Amino acid sequence: MSEEKQKQALPEPVKAHLLKTRAVTENTDAAKELFNTGRYGILLSSGKVQLSLIEAIYLSEKQKIILLDQRNKEITFENCLKKSQKQEHNFWAKYCVYKDIRNRGYIIKTALKFGADFRVYDRGIKPGEDHAKWVVFPVLEGSTLTWHDFSAKNRVAHSTKKRLLIGIIDDENDVTYYQISWIRP
Predict the structure, then answer these.
(1) pLDDT value at position 9?
(2) What CATH number is given for 89-180 in this structure?
(3) Which pLDDT does position 112 carry in this prediction?
(4) What pTM did the predictor assign?
């Protein structure tokens, strides 16, 4: 297939206005399709989709959305990433884990109300159909966790009836996951 025909076969990216910590799409069928097929964001009553910052950056990198500022000027993936890293602690580690899990075919959502960075649904399960299977904490290789920090993360997973995943990001931005659980002797 020629490059011209490939471009015509791809759907037009959805336009989304970037706010400080989120992005809001236009009210289009393509925006609703992002929500329906991949469970990106939250479908608003206006028909628009509200995306978390990390979802918006991921979809921008995948060229599924075009991020715009308040003056309708396009924001590049690189510029948005730089702003996010200044705004949010440990953003790069979170983004690496988010991207890796999404690329593996899982739905991943924020998990602030659970006291974790993310919650992950098993393949084929969409939020609202069943509960998330894991809570995930991204950690950069070489950073330190105290036993108290480690125990707190395990306690969060246990109290929410989810499995704990620690995603370790190495220098090449590859992620290795460790599932941790309580064992009663």
Answers:
(1) 58
(2) 3.40.1350.10
(3) 85
(4) 0.89
